[in-house]
């Protein structure tokens, strides 16, 4: 289409192409994009706002320039040492098998809306890294965000395992865990809760573990499931008390709606 308006249009197009191609190319640089996402979520924690850049630098030390399989749980030791948890240790909320589709993330909606209890994702590092993927490469200073989880171990899984270990070690007093009472095994021995959190609960700091068993209909039988007996025995061996309470999903939803933190 060669009309007299062609020139100004192509001029406009050139500007648009420059804007569209050049500006987002900065945004599409995975390192810049990752760092921006990290910092954006970090400053949502007002008391940590001024140390976000330093925290990002310590975080990157764990994996930048390393091959994926070289990043182990211990690679994050310095990060967790320099970024201690700040929530009340007696308000720790663990969870497992709370199917994100069926209950649309009920545990996180509950802690966020009511402000009572803290899951890992309510702590600074858990919040910042939830939903992000990252890895490095030998001889590179960049952060990559694709093909990061196709090896074992990898920087992503190593972080979440260490975070689970640390949050369990930090817990004290009456620790709560939300489990799905509709599953055959609400306490599932291959879950991160079973493999990395229960073994790291510290006695005598942790007095007991309170299972909030989320059910469709309350019938006061689901706490008797075999897998929960296993959990209770494991805790007994660790000299940690155990309690289990059936709570309907509808009741928790009501508490979320009303912002009621004392829900069971
Ligand atoms: N039965 C079958 N599958 C289960 C069960 C179960 N009872 N529990 C968990 N799973 C499966 C889930 O379907 C999912 O695919 O294990 C996978 C991970 O489940 P999560 O709900 O993330 O539970 P878990 O592995 O225990 O990790 C959660 O670790 O992130 C930390 O502090 C956090 O306490 C939390 C725990």
TrEMBL record:
GO annotation terms (biological process): positive regulation of B cell proliferation
The enzyme's E.C. designation: 3.2.2.6
InterPro entries assigned to the protein according to its UniProt record, in alphabetical order: ADP-ribosyl_cyclase
Keywords in alphabetical order: Disulfide bond, Hydrolase, NAD, Signal, Transferase
Signal peptide region: 1-28
GO CC annotation, single: plasma membrane
Gene Ontology molecular-function annotations: NAD+ nucleosidase activity, cyclic ADP-ribose generating; phosphorus-oxygen lyase activity; transferase activity
SUPFAM superfamilies (UniProt xref): N-(deoxy)ribosyltransferase-like
PANTHER family hit by this protein: ADP-RIBOSYL CYCLASE (PTHR10912), ADP-RIBOSYL CYCLASE_CYCLIC ADP-RIBOSE HYDROLASE (PTHR10912:SF9)
Stated family: Belongs to the ADP-ribosyl cyclase family.
Protein name: ADP-ribosyl cyclase/cyclic ADP-ribose hydrolase
Organism: Xyrichtys novacula
Taxonomic placement: Eukaryota, Metazoa, Chordata, Craniata, Vertebrata
């Amino acid at each position: 289409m060669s009309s007299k308006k062609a020139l100004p249009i192509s001029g406009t197009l050139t500007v648009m192409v420059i804007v569209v191609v050049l500006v987002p190319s900065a945004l599409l640089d995975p390192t810049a994009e990752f760092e921006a996402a990290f910092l954006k979520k970090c400053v949502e924690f007002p008391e940590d706002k001024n140390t976000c850049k330093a925290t990002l630098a310590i975080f990157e030390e764990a994996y930048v320039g390393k091959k994926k399989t070289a990043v182990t749980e211990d690679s994050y030791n310095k990060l967790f040492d320099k970024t201690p948890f700040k929530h009340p240790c007696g308000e720790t909320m663990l969870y497992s098998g709370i199917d994100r589709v069926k209950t649309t993330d009920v545990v996180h909606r509950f802690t966020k809306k009511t402000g009572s209890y803290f899951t890992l994702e309510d702590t600074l590092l858990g919040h910042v890294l939830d939903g992000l993927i990252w890895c490095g490469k030998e001889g590179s200073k960049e952060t990559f965000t694709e093909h990061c989880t196709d090896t074992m171990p990898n920087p992503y899984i190593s972080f979440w395992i260490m975070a689970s270990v640390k949050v369990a070690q930090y817990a004290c007093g009456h620790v709560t865990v939300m489990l799905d009472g509709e599953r055959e095994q609400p306490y599932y021995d291959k879950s991160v809760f079973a493999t990395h959190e229960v073994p790291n609960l510290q006695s005598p700091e942790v007095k007991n573990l309170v299972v909030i068993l989320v059910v469709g209909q309350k019938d006061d039988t689901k706490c008797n499931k075999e897998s929960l007996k296993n959990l209770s025995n494991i805790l007994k061996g660790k000299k940690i008390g155990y309690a289990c309470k059936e709570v309907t999903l509808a009741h928790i939803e009501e508490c979320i709606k009303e912002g009621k933190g004392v829900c069971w």
